[in-house]
Amino acid sequence: MKNHVLAFLFLCLGSFMFAQSPVGVWKTIDDETGKAKSHVQIYEQNGDLYGKVIKILTPGKENAVCTGCSGEKKNKPINGLVILEKVKKVGKNKWDNGTILDPNKGKTYSVSIELQDANKLKLRGYMGFSLLGRTQYWERVK
Fold first, then answer.
1. How many CB atoms lie within 10 A of CB 47?
2. pLDDT tens figures, 34-90
3. How crowded is the C-beta side of 44, counted as CA atoms within 13 Å?
4. DSSP assignments along the chain, one per residue
5. Whole-prediction pTM value?
6. What's the farthest any 2 CA atoms get from each other in the chain?
7. Phi and psi for 11 in degrees, rounded to 5?
8. 133/142 Cα distance (integer angstroms)
9. CA 104 – CA 125 distance, rounded (Å)
10. Are the CB atoms for 122 and 87 separated by under 8 Å?
11. What is the average pLDDT value for the chain, to the nearest integer?
């Protein structure tokens, strides 16, 4: 009986501790190659989510710049670049209505984010309708 109670408490505690926020550091996984590309720190500012590249994981690309970007981000180092902006909470584990920048292509897309569990984040970048786009799964860095 004692083991059942402990198991129940552990499950409840696990649910309670489930980080219902994507705030933290995430390893980005390229949806085309399956390889880790960078670490992005997601943070909250004025109620919206933002994400900044804090580490490049691809050898030889550590000093890459965003040549395809426009405006103030043009030719800026990708390491330190804010790529996720103004993403708003729309549900228990969902955020939407913001943008994500692909610094390798210099293109900005609409983005929706869904926290799959405490350590897995689903990001969908799209133009126009959300059916037309790309999905990536990022892993929380522990």
1. 8
2. 999 999 999 999 999 999 999 999 999 999 999 999 999 999 999 999 999 999 999
3. 8
4. -HHHHHHHHHHHHHHHHS--S--EEEEEE-TTT--EEEEEEEEEETTEEEEEEEEE-STT-TT-B-TT--GGGTT-BSTT-EEEEEEEEEETTEEEEEEEEETTTTEEEEEEEEEEETTEEEEEEESSSTTSEEEEEEEE--
5. 0.84
6. 64
7. -65, -45
8. 29
9. 14
10. no
11. 88
Is the separation of the CB atoms in 95 and 88 below 8 Å? Answer: yes
Q: In angstroms, rounded to a whole number, what is the distance separating the alpha carbons of residues 102 and 109?
A: 8
Please determine, looking at this structure, whether the domain spanning 20-140 carries the CATH number 2.40.128.520: yes
Q: Which two structure tokens, joined as six digits, stand for 74?
A: 């043009």
Summarize the confidence of residues 93-114 as an average pLDDT. 95
Asked if 77 and 86 touch (Cβ cutoff 8 Å), the reply is no
d(CA 85, CA 87): 6
- Token pair recorded at residue 6: 């402990």
Domain ranges within the chain, ordered by starting residue: 20-140
Cα separation of 112 and 106, whole Å?
19
Contacts by residues 31-36 (CB-CB < 8 Å, ≥ 24 positions apart)? 31/134, 31/135, 31/136, 31/137
